[in-house]
């Protein structure tokens, strides 16, 4: 193939394309590459290498992939996540691209040249991340949604069993939440849920996490935490929830919550048993007047 034919082929491509020497020097770029990547391809006295398009933190990975490609000679895609690889624009910003590399035998060149095609997948990556976030995070409270929360709890439970470390949970729900919805409407109910989520995110410790597992039910997971310390965290949460005041016309809605605290046993295999005990302690808190904390001490016979 002649150089002129390669250039015509590149210009016909719908995506950014670069013609690269085996040493990484960029010989030519098509119009799409010039417009989308904004690097000064082909300008006099400016030599660019493919590594100039790769963020520094990925240089070693890029080099390894390129060496593997040159040695194998097989056309391939390369990427840091799936088939996507960060590509640096001239202004320093980054886009996510799908990069395909192939070899071309070009007239008057002893070694094959590399044809690098870059397809911008930034919007696709952002959409995938947003969908993943929506699946993992409860929209109202911005806490973990049930499925994601259960996976994280199982992971922490496995770790606690493996290393014989303490793990406690705080199971709580909003007092009289149905009455709030019935009396003031679901809009106010949603505001209450948002405020409770905000309180949780700002009250529990950085290494703890909370999930919304039902309508007004929540569970906070406290790794490496004794039962006594978990009760102190629950008391902070209880007091913080009581600071929530939502204006409503001439009225002001106050909020409280009831809490059940329990811990995992070293020989306990099922997180459902742990959650059941937390729920039992919560039920006692509600039966004994609400806006309080009850503790369920697990039987060592489990």
UniProtKB/TrEMBL annotation:
GGDEF domain residues: 165-298
Alphabetized PROSITE patterns for the sequence: GGDEF
InterPro entries noted in UniProt: Diguanylate_Cyclase, GGDEF_dom, Nucleotide_cyclase, PAS-like_dom_sf, Rev_trsase/Diguanyl_cyclase
GO molecular function: diguanylate cyclase activity
Cellular component GO terms, alphabetical: plasma membrane
UniProt EC number: 2.7.7.65
Catalysed reactions, as listed in the record: 2 GTP = 3',3'-c-di-GMP + 2 diphosphate
GO-annotated biological processes: cell adhesion involved in single-species biofilm formation; negative regulation of bacterial-type flagellum-dependent cell motility
PANTHER family assigned: DIGUANYLATE CYCLASE DGCM-RELATED (PTHR45138:SF9), REGULATORY COMPONENTS OF SENSORY TRANSDUCTION SYSTEM (PTHR45138)
Protein name as it appears in the record: diguanylate cyclase
């Amino acid at each position: 193939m002649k150089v002129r034919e390669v250039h015509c082929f590149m210009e016909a491509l719908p995506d950014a394309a670069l013609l690269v020497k085996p040493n990484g020097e960029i010989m030519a770029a098509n119009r799409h590459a010039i417009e989308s990547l904004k690097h000064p391809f082909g300008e006099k006295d400016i030599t660019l290498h493919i590594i100039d398009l790769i963020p520094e933190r990925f240089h070693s990975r890029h080099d390894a992939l390129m060496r593997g490609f040159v040695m194998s000679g097989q056309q391939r895609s390369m990427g840091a996540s799936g088939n996507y690889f960060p590509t640096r624009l001239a202004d320093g910003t980054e886009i996510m691209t799908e990069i395909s590399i192939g070899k071309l035998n070009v007239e008057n060149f002893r070694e094959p040249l590399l044809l690098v095609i870059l397809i911008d997948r930034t919007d696709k990556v952002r959409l995938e991340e947003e969908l993943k976030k929506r699946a993992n995070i409860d929209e109202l409270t911005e806490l973990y949604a049930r499925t994601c929360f259960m996976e994280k709890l199982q992971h922490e439970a496995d770790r606690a069993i493996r290393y014989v470390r303490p793990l406690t949970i705080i199971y709580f729900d909003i007092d009289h939440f149905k009455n709030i919805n019935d009396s003031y409407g679901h809009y106010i109910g949603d505001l209450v849920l948002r405020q409770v989520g905000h309180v949780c995110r700002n009250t529990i410790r950085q290494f703890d996490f909370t999930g919304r597992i039902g309508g007004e039910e929540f569970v906070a997971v406290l790794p490496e935490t004794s039962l006594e310390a978990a009760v102190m965290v629950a008391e902070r949460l209880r007091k913080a929830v009581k600071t929530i005041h939502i204006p409503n016309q001439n009225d002001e809605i106050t909020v409280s919550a009831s809490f059940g605290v329990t811990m995992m046993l070293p020989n306990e295999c099922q997180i459902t048993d742990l959650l059941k005990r937390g729920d039992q302690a919560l039920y006692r808190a509600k039966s004994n007047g609400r806006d309080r904390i009850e503790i369920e001490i697990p039987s060592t016979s489990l």
